[in-house]
Amino acid sequence: MLTLSVLGFLAERPMHAYELRRHISDLIGHNRPVSDGALYPAINRLRQVGYVERRSEPGDSAPARHILSITAEGRAELLQRLAHPKPTEITDGGAFFTLLAFLSQLTDPAQQAAVLQQRLDFLNQPASFFSRSGTPVRIKDVQDPYRKGMLIMARAAQQAERAWLGEKLRELREASEGDA
Predict the structure, then answer these.
(1) Domain range summary for the chain, segments of one domain joined by +
(2) Over 90: is that where the pLDDT of 113 sits?
(3) Domain 2-76 - what CATH class?
């Protein structure tokens, strides 16, 4: 998620590492805090493989600032990651939301739709926090009020996500048909 976030934000515009960390924290920090100890090594790895470059810019009455920007190779990597997400980027809610935050970087509505369809297919599979031998437990059969609350909230969130995905997929398919 960190690599995808770095490439995604830098695809939007160049920025310095402090600003980048703030944007990443705003996006994924509620799930996993972003520390300098994680961000700077990730940036350095991306620089070493040629996905990110750094240039110095004079500071206003301060030391020079290092501005990060994505390279053509980095943009290609970002687009590849967005078009062909890992299975966990579809099944893990936090990872999917990070992917979703940058999906507009894919300009082909058919590619966007393919990613959203993968998520919808995953959500449409029978699943539950609590199951007996693989069969989801019915809410009315859960006695613990907190576990019942977990099920109610999770199912409501999934229902809302399915509805949004269905609507967005219709829009993207109409856009793809309009281009054809």
Answers:
(1) 2-76, 107-179
(2) yes
(3) mainly alpha
